[in-house]
Write a structure and sequence with these properties.
Elements lengths: L13 E2 L27 H14 L3 E2 L15 E3 L9 H8 L27 E2 L18 H18 L8 H6 L12 H11 L19 H4 L8 E4 L5 H8 L6 E4 L3 H4 L1 E4 L20 E14 L2 E9 L11 E5 L16 E4 L20 E2 L4 E3 L4 E8 L2 E8 L5 E2 L5 E3 L5 E3 L4 E3 L6 E4 L1 E2 L1 E2 L1 E2 H9 L1
Pfam families: Granulin, Peptidase_C1
Protein name: (rape) hypothetical protein
Family: Belongs to the peptidase C1 family.
Length: about 450
């Protein structure tokens, strides 16, 4: 799997509600209720904001300035300098949004079909009920389907057993390979099916998330701490059915989340822009699918009308959006809901308690080192880089502390595979030749000669 850091041809986010006319300004707002001219901030203020953004998100400047356009439009949300602000939308989609798999089977149930006379609560927030774990960061790649499925399982497990347990996403990435594709994309229904067939899923503590495709750890796969009994799909294209389902438990959904507005989403602006008239709303069409899990629904009174919102959690960490959450409007005209949220909702079913806790898994066998040649080795999850070549032969090897790294030629540094351009003058790694931002290059360490490795094994 690519270590490309949301389902996700399916992103896992918590949606709260969005009325959306797109405002492209990312540095010109102080609040949500005004528009500004291009000169509304001084050069010093812009520079300060830029430096704060670099520091907050660990960015390294390698070029001069970047142009961020903006439009003075009424909007109910604000765009900001998120950690993705230095990426083009194409880069963002390729790095953070996985491929969309086609669902070949459906298990639509009438359990939560909307019916006339349904008495549903005005609002539900499963966070307040203690059924939602902390916001996660999936990193780059398309593993959001796993986060979404696991989040729904964590929620129903809390509802049935009273225990909120953070469960392993990495187990799904590594082991659920018959149908899903790890960090390259997947579907929550298939993840539920894997958990059922496996007899349960391990904890996050025992099988932690690494953000890359790995080999399935059979010992931890057999831990089976939390179980589910079945899964079903909410009737498609029915926001009322989705609301009914969400009033009973957290739900996994798929949304289109590859748009620029999603990439730069910062916060919701109550009372801004479109007022209470749906006809004045301008809707953003998300270009790619992302998995998410609605956490709540409810409303905010505005202009004597109620704007109804869904709360969804996005798996990009708490520094994105509203502490890791985004709000999305509900009750819109489109049958599929905002960004297609009502197209593929699904949920796990749990009928009883979990099996006895088996305790932590025993340590996995120590994997052998990576062999650079007949004389040198590097540790597992490192990359062998030649330090000194003589003709066709490598005389000395170094070890880069990254998998599938780029070895910088004539230098003792290396770069992540998704930042493959070595900038030797600045000691940084670029995503592409003309990229304005970079990450710091890593230093290699000397490889271990076989004779030294043999001594360690004897000791």
């Amino acid at each position: 799997m690519k270590l490309i850091s949301p389902v996700m041809a399916i992103l896992f986010l918590t949606m709260i509600g969005v009325e959306t006319a797109m405002d492209m300004s990312i540095i010109s707002h102080d609040d949500c209720h005004h528009t500004f001219s291009a000169g509304s901030r001084s050069d010093a203020e812009v520079s300060r904001l830029y430096e704060e953004w670099l520091g907050k998100h660990g960015k390294v400047q390698t070029g001069l300035g970047s142009e961020f356009s903006y439009r003075e439009r009424s909007t109910s949300y604000r765009l900001g300098l998120t950690k993705f602000a230095d990426l083009t939308n194409d880069q963002y989609r390729s790095m953070y949004v996985g491929s969309r798999l086609k669902r070949t089977i459906t298990r639509t149930s009438l359990r939560y079909e909307a019916c006339v006379g349904d008495a549903l609560p005005e609002s539900v927030d499963w966070r307040k009920e203690g059924a939602v774990t902390e916001v996660k960061d999936q990193g780059s790649g398309g593993s959001c389907w796993g986060f979404s499925a696991i989040g729904a399982v964590e929620g129903v497990n809390k509802i049935v057993t009273g225990d909120l347990i953070s469960l392993s996403k990495q187990e799904l990435v590594d082991c659920d390979i018959p149908y899903n594709e790890g960090c390259n994309g997947g579907l929550m229904d298939y993840a539920f099916k894997f958990i059922i067939n496996n007899g349960g899923v391990d904890t996050e503590e025992d099988y932690p998330y690494k953000g890359v495709d790995g080999r399935c750890d059979q010992t931890r796969k057999n831990a089976k701490v939390v179980t589910i009994d079945s899964y079903e799909d909410v009737p498609a294209n029915s926001e009322e059915s989705l609301k009914k389902a969400l009033s009973h438990q957290p739900i996994s959904v798929a949304i289109e989340a590859g748009g620029r507005a999603f990439q730069l989403y910062d916060s919701f602006c109550p009372g801004a822009g479109a007022g209470g008239s749906r006809k004045k709303f301008r809707y953003i069409r998300w270009n790619l699918w992302n998995k998410s899990r609605p956490r709540s629904f409810g409303g905010r009174i505005r202009n004597r009308e109620r704007q109804r919102l869904l709360d969804c959690e996005k798996l990009m960490g708490s520094s994105w959006g509203e502490s890791g959450y985004i709000r999305m409007e509900r009750n819109i005209a489109a049958s599929g809901g905002k960004c297609g949220i009502a197209v593929e909702p699904s949920y796990p079913i749990k009928n009883g308690q979990n099996p006895p806790n088996p305790g932590p898994s025993p340590p996995s066998p120590i994997k052998p080192p990576i062999q650079c040649d007949n004389y040198y080795t590097c540790p597992q999850r490192y990359t062998c880089c030649c330090l000194f070549e003589y003709g066709k032969y490598c005389i000395a090897w170094g070890c880069c502390p990254l998998e599938a790294a780029t070895c910088c030629v004539h230098n003792d540094s290396c770069c992540p595979h998704d930042y493959p351009i070595c900038d030797l003058d600045h000691g940084t790694c670029l995503m592409s030749k003309n990229s304005l931002f970079s990450v710091k290059a890593l230093k290699r360490k000397p490889a271990t000669p076989f004779w030294q490795q043999s001594r360690k094994n004897i000791a």
